[in-house]
Design goal:
3-stranded antiparallel beta sheet, about 120 residues, single chain
Length: about 120
């Protein structure tokens, strides 16, 4: 699924506050994810479910990191766009060895700006 940054932030705001931790019991043959004393989910105790429980326990941190990286990416894209604009203004366009450098910088910036990634 492809969620927007706003949707990720809304999910993060709506989930049980963390930190989440995977746990389990040999007596009940179950594994679960807890947030403090509250169980977020319970599964049967098998190797795959134990792996899933660790991934589920990481959900709040992963959502927060994903949203933060998207916000940082947006700031970096804006800065790169501004750098590309300034390079076009500051570096002479013809009759200079700097022209090739300028064109190279602008091409790299435009390629990065065209690659939206996971926004």
């Amino acid at each position: 699924m492809n969620y927007t940054t706003e949707e990720l932030r809304a999910m993060l705001a709506g989930i049980t506050p963390g930190p989440w931790k995977d746990d389990g019991s040999a007596f009940t043959m179950a594994t679960w994810v807890k947030a403090g004393a509250k169980r977020v989910c319970t599964m049967r105790a098998c190797d795959q479910d134990a792996i899933n429980a660790r991934a589920i326990a990481a959900t709040p941190d992963l959502l927060a990191e994903c949203a933060a990286l998207r916000e940082q990416n947006a700031k970096l894209r804006k800065a790169l766009d501004e750098c590309s604009s300034y390079a076009a203004l500051l570096i002479p366009s013809k009759g200079s060895n700097d022209a090739a450098k300028r064109d190279h910088i602008i091409a790299i910036a435009r390629a990065a700006l065209a690659d939206k990634g996971a926004e």
